[in-house]
Amino acid sequence: MKKSIVLLLSLCLVMTACSSKEKEKAAEEPKTTATQEAPKETPKETPKESEDQKLATAETEEFAFSYPASWQAYDLSQLNQPAIKAAYADPAPKSAFADNVNVAADNSTFTAKENADMVVAQYEGGALANAIKDFKKISYTEGAHNSGILVGEYTQAQSGVPVVLTQYIVPTGSSTYTLSISYTKESYENGGKETVQKMVDSFKLSSKALAAADTGKTSTGQANAAANAGQTQLADMMAQIIPSITDNAGQMTEKTYNYIVSHKDLFPALTAESKKAAKSSVDASVTSRHLFKNINPYLDKMVQVSGPVIDIEEEETEIGTIAIIHVGDENDNSFVGLYMNSTGDILEGDEVTMVGLPTSLFSFDNIGGGTTNAILMSVSTVQKTK
Questions:
Q1: Where are the beta strands (DSSP E) in the chain?
Q2: Which pTM value belongs to this model?
Q3: What span, in angstroms and rounded, lies between the C-alpha atoms of 64 and 56?
Q4: Omega of the bond prior to 91 within 30 degrees of 0, cis?
Q5: Nearest to 172 by CA among 223, 118, 101
Q6: Most buried of 65, 279, 355, 362, CB within 10 angstroms?
Q7: Cβ neighbours of residue 26 under 8 Å, at least 6 residues apart?
Q8: 21-58: per-residue pLDDT in tens?
């Protein structure tokens, strides 16, 4: 099971990788929804005049922003990206790349600067080379209310068109909204830069979104533990990575999050003492049969899984080495482990034992054309047994 473990803190690439033909097709549709989850929340569009061109306002229950009135709403059902809440694109691009804007929301608790730094590290490192080539950071500017504006330039891989990307990153404490605006360099330098600034200035969160953020900060175990930033940082990172591993089908619950925060020395367990503590914490009565029947009672129970490595991959990131290990147990059940460290000399086909927390049940397409159900584990230790 090959999955990218890049932190997809920005989803602008989903839009920028689309061809102009796809955008023209979207433009021909009489009406498109601007939110995948709730079609009734199609942004209300209110045309208004600006000094140099007409702008329209997209408004949802969570946010509002302006965009060029000639742009068309993109059909989000084509993207299969629930994190994208609204998207608009130029229906008549002058090149093979269509200028566009989208708004994404996720449960990131990183600061705007941390989000921007990770985006730059991934893009400059070539992690998304199939869509972005030769990314170069132009600037980062801190904004009001702990927000930030990242500007970068890259070559869109499929079309070869130079693109300027502007991201307005707005953290709320319990989530992050990102307004991503992509213009061809030619458009950007010929009036687009001024329009981009107006779009950034127009972005506002609703009172409902801000209230939800306040509620999240006061009612969850994540917020209660946030007083100790060092203690929560790893759990926050893991919670952010999990949706990208599972194609947004899995997430870390509060139960698992709180366990990791309370046992931070076990994730990962790197010393002889912590490895011993991890193994002694295993509840031997919990088997794969229990987990696949109902994972919920065991989200804060350490379990042990042994079997051959079906697939393994590691990636170097700004926050260190991250590994994904797909293991099949004696009952041919699939366990996919997220391990926040290098796995050393473990390779595909090796027999290993993983100790960790069952975190989420999800499924993925297998090579036989069917679907495989799997348990995602937050791994404490992984050791080769053969």
A1: 46-49, 54-59, 63-68, 72-73, 84-89, 100-106, 132-142, 148-156, 162-171, 176-184, 204-205, 303-317, 320-328, 334-339, 351-365, 371-384
A2: 0.55
A3: 10
A4: no
A5: 223
A6: 65
A7: 32, 72, 73, 74, 75, 78, 89, 91
A8: 444 443 344 333 343 344 345 555 544 444 346 999 99
- Residue 246 scores a pLDDT above 80: yes
In this prediction, residue 43 carries a pLDDT of 59
What distance in Å separates the CA atoms of residue 110 and residue 353, rounded to the nearest whole number? 32
Q: Which residue has the tokens 């994540």?
A: 222
How far is CA 279 from its chain centroid? 31
Residue given tokens 């690439």 in the structure block:
13
Tokens at residue 166, please?
A: 């502007």
> Which tokens is 366 given?
């297998």
| Strands, sheet with 148-156, edge to edge from the N-terminal-most edge strand | 72-73, 84-89, 100-106, 176-184, 162-171, 148-156, 132-142
Phi, psi of 191 (to 5 degrees): 105, -20
